[in-house]
Structures are given as structure tokens and as C-alpha cells.
């Protein structure tokens, strides 16, 4: 039985399985994330990377297994409860509210006024405004607060979504391909940004860009057909013959 | 950047001009220009505006299209009609019936006693409570059943339409209790005050206008709150809202119930001003018409909803007085035209076409004035 209160780990995933009509997208998967660790999940298309994040944040219901976050069983919680427990999730395609300003996008993620009446009587006080300004500067959007999110570039939308997670101050941050579709310059800035924000929290990142992975990863988990193929440092997995075979083919 | 520039304002100067303009039209221009019969007609149109304003919040802002708002309009209207009917059915007024003291249609259907659930409606206080509470409770049940299961979009629209059809059939089928297809008619007095006279109708018109403004300001408050922005966010990226820590279903239930409450007030005012309530205001056709009012006004604009309602209904009356068979075609054509050419309705045309030109004119005027002043 999983010891859900083990203080050495922020997140414990054990025997996690999800089956879609008999197809096991994630199959008996186990891994552990330590405090302040940046775990990068890599793997070929269809390996189940995004599904793992979906299972942790409650978007997809697991068939069996355990997911424990700081002693709480995430599989028994609703999506919004998981967020309040301290898990933040960024989607693969940038999900920002295009019809709202950058300011309003960040404001809606501010961790206050989440109930119906809390939201109805929410006040934009000085604390809220200062925090939004602070986050906006961190994500390079300090002078774009009044801009409608629809008018941001693809890279800026990615940053905005990262900012929306930062303002929640989650203990575990899950990012699905944060540099996908970015220019080289944007990529560099994002790596710098991520290095700054992962300093005091645990992060799980899905990424394909190996240069970027080498830049940020504490440890790397390689998924293949819903299972862990290899795990360890970047050097270790890059030299693992099993990984080489999966990536280069037979 | 100065962060104080992000202070929320409930009404911008632009909003205030809009509200003042509408208030002038409703409270001054209509009463001065229209004879009592026409004024009462416009009062009736304005009761539909309550529904359209609710639809702006639900559909335009929140993306929840309900094709069954007539249900809540009707429930509000029926609650009020039940009270008025009981008052009109005093034993003296109904002495010729086989059971005096009960509404006439019950007597015709061989009922010999008032059903128990009609009893509380002899109290005006209870009726006022029920006008809001019954539709809101019903919308809450629908909302919980649908939104908790994450039913949305087209499926939700179809289900609300089915509910409108079911309720119509139920009302028509249970004619001993509801007055059937004729509805509840021959309403006379409110606490002894005859609501059929011209002076009463004029007063009710003003009460209706005042209530409409209360509803408009309530809608404005919701729209300007964080909840209003959340509704827009949910419409565009529901998952992002959910994974930002919000229980999305609760917000949908709230705005659906609010829309129902608005519609119910409109329904009750309809009954008072028109003097009857019937299933023809509950079903699918009126429910869809109300969506068209909101669409023509501009589904994102609270004030637009009122103008859209007035315009479409005025056109309906004018057209169907001269070409009764053409009206439905006209309405359909209007809806298609709005969707194809003016997706933001009257409010969009105003903001994109009229306002910039008006501003240009004003600026030219003030420039001309500035040039001529020194010469004087």
C-alpha cells in the first residue's frame, strides 16, 4: 500500500493505469517527484505523456492506481479541488482567454474569490494589482496589461498562461510543451523564465526539444507505450540503449 | 505603468449616456408621444426585454444558449395570474357557478374545490415571493441536472427547448387546474385596484420601466464583476477556468437562475399589464423569438437587448397589422440577416458605424466653433 504521507516526495504516482476501450494509454506507471525537482517527461508520440498530466490534474479519470500529492489522494478529488491543493497545469496549446485583457487573464487566476459570490463581490484591491504587475513583468508582459490576449503572439500567449499558473503559486507545476511553436529568441527567454520559477517548487515538464530539456531537467523520465522506459539524469537516458532504440527505430 | 488605471468602474461615461438615453425614451418620450393603448403595447414589449437581458448574460456573455426562457417568463406570469384570478373569483363575482368562489375554468371542468397548491396564491406576499422563487427553483433543478453532468452547447439548447414544449403540453392538458389553452383570463383587480383602466395601465407601465432599470443595473453589476469576466472566460476556454480552481458548473447554474429570475419578473409584469397569461407565451416559438430579440439587439449588450426587443416587436406589430402572413418570414429573414451581416446586432452597428461618425461630426463642430469664436 502506498504511504501517502512520505515527506520525501511531493508527488507519488504508483501503478497508474488508464484504459480507453481496452487500450491502455498509461499502463502500470510509477514515478516519484521530489520537492524542488524539475522532472522532464519525454517520449515518442502516443507514449501517454499528456495523458499522465491529465490523470494527475483530474481531467481524465484513472482506471486504477494511486496518485498522492502531499498526502492527499488526487484521484478522489474534483479538478478545482486539485488546483486548490496546489497543482497547476498548463495545456499544450496556449489556453488563454482571448476576449479579455492580459490583466483580466491574470486576475481570474488570482487565488481569491473562487466561489460564485466571492467572484461577484471580488475587489481589485492594491494587493491584487501589485501582484498582477509583478507577475506580468516576470513573464515579459509588463507593458501589455491592457492589451487583449487575442492580439498577443503565440509565444506571448504561452508566457501568459505560465503567468496565470504562477499567480496561483502552485507547489507542483505541470507544463505541457511550454516552448512548442516558439522562435529561438523566445525559447531562450522561456528557458530563463522557467529556470527562475522552478527554483522554489516542483515541476513536471513535457518537452521534445532536447537542448531545452538538458537546460532545465533535474531528472528525465522516458515514456514508451504508457510505461516508463528509462529514468535518470539526462546523460543516463541519452545513453540508455533502450531509449536509443525507441527513438531511432529498429 | 500606473496600476491605479485598472480600477473597476461600474458605469463608464459611455454607459451612462446609454442608460440616460434609454431612460429618456422609456420614461419621457413614449409616455408623451403614445396614446394609452400604444403605451400599454410598448409596456408589453418591455416585459420581453427582461428575458432578453437575461439571455445576454446567459448566452452572449456566458455562452449558454437557452431556447426555453419562455418557461420562466410563463411561470412568473402564471404565478401572478393565479393571484389575480383568485381575487377576480370572489363568491359574489362567481355566484352563477355550480361552485362559487373558484376560478371559472375550474368550474367548467367540474372541479368542486380549489386545488391545495392554489391556496397560497390568495396571499399577495406569497405571490410576489413565488413569482421569483418558482422559476428560480425550477431553473436551479435544470441547471444542476445539466451543468453538473457537463451537458452544454447544442445539447443544452435542445433540452431547454424540449422542456418548453413539455410544459406547454402539461399546461394545456391540465386545463382544470391551469385554464388550458386559453390560459388564465379575465383578470380584474389587484387588491381592489382595477388594473384594466387606462390610468392603471399607465401606472403599471412606469412600474414596469422602473423594474426593468433595476434589472438592467443588476445585469450591469454582474457584467462588470469578476464573475462577468469569468463567464466570458468559460465561454472561450472552459477547461482553463476549471483548472484555474473554479467549479464551472456553479457559475453556469448561477447565471441560468439569474436569467430565469429576470424572465419571471417580466412574465409577472406581462400578466399585470396585458390582463391574462396563456401557454402561448411558454412554448418554443416565444422562447426562440426572445433569443432573436437578444440577437438583434446584440447578444453582448445589455442595453442592446432592450432596443432589439423594442425594434423587433414594433416591426412585428406594424407588419402584422398590414401583412399578417408575411411576419414570420420577415422574422426569419431578420434573424438570418443579423447572424450573417451584423453578428453584434444593433449594439455592434452603433459602436462600429454610428458612434465613430457621430464623434467625427462632433469634433468637426467643435473645431468649427473654435474657429468662429475669435471672429465674433
From TrEMBL, chain A:
Cellular component GO terms, alphabetical: plasma membrane
Keyword annotations: ATP-binding, Nucleotide-binding, Transport
InterPro entries reported in the protein's UniProt record: AAA+_ATPase, ABC_AA/LPS_Transport, ABC_transporter-like_ATP-bd, ABC_transptr_urea_ATP-bd_UrtD, BCA_ABC_TP_C, P-loop_NTPase
Pfam families in the record: ABC_tran, BCA_ABC_TP_C
PROSITE patterns according to UniProt: ABC_TRANSPORTER_2
Domain of life: Bacteria
Record domain ABC transporter: where: 11-250
SMART domains: AAA
Coiled coil: none
KW Transport (keyword) present: yes
NCBIfam families, per the entry: urea_trans_UrtD
Protein known as: Urea transport system ATP-binding protein
Species per Swiss-Prot/TrEMBL record: Primorskyibacter sedentarius
TrEMBL record, chain B:
Keywords: Cell membrane, Membrane, Transmembrane, Transmembrane helix
Pfam name, any one: BPD_transp_2
Primary localization: membrane
Membrane topology: Multi-pass membrane protein
Lineage: Bacteria, Pseudomonadati, Pseudomonadota, Alphaproteobacteria, Rhodobacterales
Highest taxon listed in the record's lineage: Bacteria
One Gene Ontology term of the molecular function aspect: branched-chain amino acid transmembrane transporter activity
Protein's recorded name: Amino acid/amide ABC transporter membrane protein 2 (HAAT family)
UniProt cross-references to PANTHER family, sorted A to Z: HIGH-AFFINITY BRANCHED-CHAIN AMINO ACID TRANSPORT SYSTEM PERMEASE, SLR1201 PROTEIN
Compartments where located: Cell membrane
Stretches that traverse the bilayer: 16-34, 46-68, 124-147, 154-173, 203-222, 243-270, 290-314, 326-351
GO cellular component: plasma membrane
Amino acid at each position: 500500500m502506498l504511504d501517502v504521507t512520505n515527506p520525501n516526495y511531493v508527488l507519488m504516482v504508483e501503478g497508474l493505469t488508464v484504459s480507453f476501450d481496452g487500450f491502455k494509454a498509461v499502463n502500470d506507471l510509477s514515478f516519484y517527484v521530489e520537492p524542488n525537482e524539475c522532472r522532464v517527461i519525454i517520449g515518442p508520440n502516443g507514449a501517454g505523456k499528456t495523458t499522465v498530466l491529465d490523470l494527475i490534474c483530474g481531467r481524465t479519470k484513472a482506471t486504477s492506481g494511486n496518485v498522492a500529492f502531499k498526502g492527499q489522494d488526487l484521484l478522489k478529488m474534483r479538478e478545482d479541488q486539485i488546483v486548490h491543493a496546489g497543482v497547476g497545469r498548463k495545456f499544450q496549446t496556449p489556453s488563454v482567454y482571448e476576449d479579455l485583457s492580459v490583466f483580466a487573464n491574470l486576475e481570474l487566476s488570482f487565488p481569491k474569490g473562487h466561489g460564485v459570490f466571492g467572484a461577484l463581490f471580488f475587489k481589485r484591491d492594491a494587493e491584487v494589482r501589485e501582484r498582477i504587475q509583478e507577475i506580468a513583468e516576470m513573464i515579459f508582459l509588463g507593458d501589455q496589461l491592457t492589451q487583449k490576449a487575442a492580439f498577443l503572439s503565440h509565444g506571448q500567449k504561452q508566457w501568459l498562461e505560465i503567468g496565470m499558473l504562477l499567480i496561483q503559486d502552485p507547489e507542483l507545476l505541470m507544463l505541457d510543451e511550454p516552448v512548442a511553436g516558439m522562435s529561438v529568441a523566445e525559447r531562450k527567454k522561456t528557458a530563463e523564465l522557467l529556470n527562475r520559477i522552478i527554483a522554489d517548487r516542483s515541476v513536471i515538464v513535457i518537452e521534445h526539444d532536447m537542448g531545452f530539456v538538458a537546460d532545465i531537467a533535474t531528472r528525465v523520465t522516458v515514456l514508451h507505450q504508457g510505461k516508463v522506459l528509462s529514468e535518470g539524469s539526462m546523460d543516463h537516458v541519452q545513453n540508455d540503449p533502450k531509449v536509443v532504440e525507441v527513438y531511432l527505430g529498429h | 505603468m500606473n496600476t491605479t488605471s485598472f480600477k473597476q468602474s461600474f458605469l463608464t461615461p459611455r454607459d451612462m449616456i446609454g442608460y440616460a438615453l434609454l431612460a429618456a425614451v422609456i420614461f419621457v418620450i413614449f409616455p408623451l408621444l403614445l396614446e394609452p393603448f400604444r403605451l400599454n403595447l410598448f409596456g408589453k414589449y418591455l416585459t420581453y426585454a427582461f428575458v432578453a437581458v437575461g439571455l445576454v448574460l446567459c448566452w452572449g456573455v456566458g455562452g449558454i444558449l437557452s431556447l426555453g426562457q419562455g418557461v420562466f417568463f410563463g411561470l412568473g406570469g402564471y404565478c401572478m395570474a393565479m393571484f389575480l384570478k383568485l381575487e377576480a373569483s370572489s363568491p359574489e363575482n362567481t355566484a352563477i357557478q355550480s361552485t362559487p368562489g373558484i376560478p371559472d375554468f375550474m368550474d367548467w371542468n367540474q372541479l368542486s374545490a380549489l386545488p391545495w397548491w392554489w391556496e397560497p396564491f390568495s396571499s399577495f406576499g406569497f405571490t410576489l415571493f413565488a413569482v421569483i422563487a418558482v422559476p428560480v427553483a425550477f431553473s436551479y433543478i435544470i441547471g444542476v441536472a445539466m451543468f453538473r453532468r457537463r451537458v452544454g452547447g447544442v445539447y443544452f439548447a435542445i433540452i431547454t427547448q424540449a422542456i418548453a414544449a413539455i410544459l406547454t403540453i402539461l399546461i394545456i392538458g391540465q386545463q382544470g387546474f391551469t385554464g388550458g389553452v386559453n390560459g388564465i383570463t379575465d383578470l380584474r383587480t389587484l387588491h381592489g385596484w382595477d388594473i384594466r383602466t387606462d390610468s392603471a395601465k399607465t401606472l403599471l407601465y412606469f412600474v414596469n420601466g422602473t423594474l426593468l432599470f433595476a434589472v438592467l443595473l443588476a445585469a450591469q453589476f454582474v457584467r462588470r464583476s469578476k464573475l462577468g469576466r469569468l463567464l466570458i472566460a468559460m465561454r472561450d476556454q472552459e477547461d482553463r477556468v476549471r483548472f484555474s480552481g473554479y467549479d464551472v458548473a456553479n457559475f453556469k447554474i448561477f447565471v441560468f437562475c439569474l436569467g430565469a429570475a429576470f424572465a419571471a419578473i417580466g412574465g409577472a409584469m406581462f400578466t399585470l399589464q396585458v390582463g391574462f397569461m396563456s401557454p402561448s407565451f411558454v412554448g418554443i416559438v416565444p422562447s426562440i423569438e426572445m433569443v432573436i430579440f437578444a440577437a438583434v439587439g446584440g447578444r453582448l449588450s445589455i442595453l442592446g437587448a432592450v432596443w432589439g426587443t423594442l425594434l423587433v416587436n414594433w416591426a412585428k406589430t406594424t407588419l402584422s397589422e398590414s401583412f399578417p402572413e408575411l411576419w414570420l418570414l420577415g422574422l426569419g429573414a431578420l434573424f438570418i440577416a443579423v447572424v450573417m451581416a451584423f453578428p453584434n446586432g444593433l449594439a455592434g452597428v452603433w459602436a462600429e458605424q454610428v458612434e465613430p461618425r457621430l464623434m467625427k461630426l462632433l469634433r468637426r463642430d467643435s473645431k468649427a466653433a473654435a474657429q468662429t469664436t475669435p471672429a465674433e
